Amino acid sequence: MSMWGQIMLQDANSPIMENMIMFYDFSMIIIVLVVAMIMYLLFFMLFNKLIDRFLLEGQMIEIIWTVIPIIFLIFLAIPSLKLLYLSDEINNPIMSIKVLGHQWYWSYEFNDFKSINFDSFMIKDDKNNLFRLLDVDNRLILPFNYQIRFLISSLDVIHSFTIPSLGSKVDAVPGRINQINLFMKRPGIYFGQCSEICGVNHSFMPIVIESTSLKNFINWINKI
């Protein structure tokens, strides 16, 4: 992977993440405009010999530099609030999956088809592991192009269920159930990690979701 691919956001694999990247690009355009305007004004004020050093007030310029930031904030607030509500939207999921955080692994429960539960531990580092510190022994297999609801909680301390390429980040809080909908647009393997400091092995409880067709998902369910 190139250097630019490492410092930028991951490729979007869900509608929410696509909207997040669009909002990021839109915000950066406004930020660049603000910085360019401020740098121009500073340069103009520092190197302009016609400035009146005895000027005590300028109501017009104060109105201008108060109104313009308000306009910029409005242009940022509207898409930000829209994205916030879209990320919390529940769109008739075809199934619900319970996700439990532990020190230091994840466990998953399916109750819509039959009672299925399994733990997901990080694979130990060895030469045959292509995804160092990211792959697990039991991947979560899910169908793409379907709405799926996650019910997320924890049995010990606060964790965070995070999958960057899907635009998902939900805290797993003991005694509380948080929910989020995921919609994967294409097959693939999506990696995530706990994003809340949860103990000495916080960096070693990865999340792996394998997105596949509905037929392959049903075959996987029947084999468990």
Automatic annotation (TrEMBL):
Co-factor(s): Cu cation
Single GO MF descriptor: copper ion binding
Keywords: Copper, Electron transport, Magnesium, Membrane, Metal-binding, Mitochondrion, Mitochondrion inner membrane, Respiratory chain, Translocase, Transmembrane, Transmembrane helix, Transport
Cofactor binding notes: Binds a copper A center.
Pfam families hit by this protein: COX2, COX2_TM
Gene name as annotated: COX2
Location of the protein in the cell: Mitochondrion inner membrane
Protein's recorded name: Cytochrome c oxidase subunit 2
Listed transmembrane segments: 21-43, 63-85
Highest taxon listed in the record's lineage: Eukaryota
Domain called Cytochrome oxidase subunit II transmembrane region profile: residue spans: 1-91
Lipid bilayer topology: Multi-pass membrane protein
Source organism: Philotrypesis sp. JHX-2011
Domain Cytochrome oxidase subunit II copper A binding stretches: 92-223
Keyword Cell inner membrane: no
